[in-house]
Fold this protein.
Amino acid sequence: MMLKSQLIDKLAAEYPHLRHEDVEKVVNVILEEIGDALARGDRVELRGFGAFSVRNRDARRGRNPRTGEPVKVPAKAVPFFKAGKELRARVNGGDDPEAR
C-alpha cells in the first residue's frame, strides 16, 4: 500500500530540483481535478494507466444485517476505475504490454 504522503515523498526525492511543497501542491491539484471531473460526470483517461468514470447504481431493496429487515437503498453514482493495458501487463508481471 502507498499513501498519498509516501507518493509525495517519493516524487520529491526523485526530482530534487522541485521543492517538497511544490510536489505536494501538484499531486493535490491532480487528484482534486480528477475528483471534480468525476463529480461533473466526466471521464478521466490517463493513457497507459487507466480510466476513471462514474457508474450509476439503481435503487434496490437491501437487508439490514443486524435485524434482517428489508431496507430501501437509494440510487447512487459510484466512481469506477478501469486499468489500462500497460498497467495490467505490469501488474501481471510483464514489462512488455504487447506481450499479453
User: Anything to note?
Assistant: The first strand starts at residue 44 and ends at 46. The chain is about 40% helix and 25% strand.
